[in-house]
Fold each of these.
Amino acid sequence: MLTGRQTLGTIEQSLADLRREEAELTKSIERSTRALADFQERQSDAYRDLARFRLDTDAAGTLNTRLDSAAREARRLLDKRSADYKVLGEQWRQSETERSQLQKKRQELDAARNTAENQMDDLMEVVDGRLEQDSAYLAQRETTETAIATAEAAAEKARTSEQDRQQKGKAYEADPLFIYLWRRGYGTPHYAHRGLVRSLDRWVAGLIRYQDARANYAMLTGIPEHMALHAERCAEIAAAEQQKLAEFSRNAMTDAAGTDLVAEIETLSGEIDRIDGELDKLDRQIETLSSAFAEFSSGEDADFRKAEDHLSVSLQADELKDLWRAARETPSPEDEKIVQRIEDLQERIDQAARETRQDRELQRDIGRRRAELSEVIKRFRARGYGSWESTFSDESLTTVLLGELVKGAITGADYWARAERSHRRRKPRGRSVAFPKGVGLPKSMGGFGTSGGSSRGGFRTGKSFGGTGFRTGDTF
């Protein structure tokens, strides 16, 4: 059986490893890209040497001027690009360093929270035993249960009355003459029309017996509103009683532990949540920088493409092709050496280009796998699967299955589906006397969390009519 934190921690470590692999590959692609540009410059130099050897002074000068101009412009663009790349790299390193520091801090806080949660779990039986003998606690528990039952009944009645209003109100709302008078407020102090309009409205009201219908419709619509307000008041009362019950449980746990473990756990959880928010922002920032970095390292940025164009246009000119052909047709050893140098450089250019293309494909694949892992982690955090209460029965989530995800053999959706199927929520020890249905427990241990900014256990309401209603917590 895996704990949620073990599982999440292993996935996060795999993501960190993949990020390091991606960073190293990005550096390798950048080195290859720079080498490719260097080979092209050296080939341009070799062409100039060949031109000087084969052509007369004027023709060679013209050709060298064109090659020098192309090389100078390419070098200017590459120098600018290198400066931009350096700034981008520094931003990326700073972001990664900040992320690493935050992740380390989070791990420390998580370990402290886990220790406090385990201590609290160990004391459950003791606290249960104390409260079972506490008449004041037992009386408050009975009061709380009564308040909850009342709130649930009131919420159900409110829902029923709202459904009744919707069903019975259709006939009224489908009558255009009735709705016309109702919206004008006819028959109420709010009606302000006079003269002919008032006379015509009176005639329409008599025609459809509006006064009787208005009274019935007003009652039909008024009851759900009153019931909703009553249900809301009952829910507030139940929440207050539940808060009192949580105080008993928390105080008993504090006495047993010698410290307020609930407050400690919730404080640590709050800090972890804050760090998670910062990590999320950093991840988005790093993703943006990573995309820009990948563009630079692969030579897809505008400056590199312009520099490449300047060199390639010159190297593909007809005069240079003629020089190459002429040199190969003459027996002179000097120009043959230059041609050999050009051919050797071309082979190295082709090889560097092939390796760079392969690395770019791998880079895109790693980026896709990293995105899959990141999405899984976001889902884990959003669903609270990294909490103390979460466990997983499928141990392959941190071994074989995770390895398949990292390699790209399965998608993040496949992994997530397996994780959801094997997810379980463990119960704290004890007989649930002290924390019935999670009342007073920290959120990470299955409780309802805070109420009004306090770290004490709270009352949870559910959504129904008009935004009010009542729902008890998960069964413990």
Amino acid sequence: MPRAVDGTRRKNRRKKITSQTKGYWGRRKNAFRTAKDALAKSLEYSYRDRKVRKRDFRRLWITRISAACRAEGMTYSRLMEGLRKADVQVDRKTLSNLAIEDRDAFNSLVETARNQLQG
């Protein structure tokens, strides 16, 4: 009777990990133990950075809105306060796109905020 060896299961398990580490540098792509550690770390980073990406984009949008506001003689915080008082519900992503692509629409929102703050 032939001897049973854990060949295919072990090979499949290792192949699954090394196929996920394709493109990594050096031993990290093909030496199983190193590849396993590198894959675990990369999955941690990708999980973490999916959250960080949202923060980074929000910071970028706020920076763009702030720059466009200052060109109109208003600060970012005053703009957001005026829009809140005027009950204009536009998110920061949309405001940022307006500041870049449709300057007239953005300027009308700035005027709306300015009027709401004055009176």
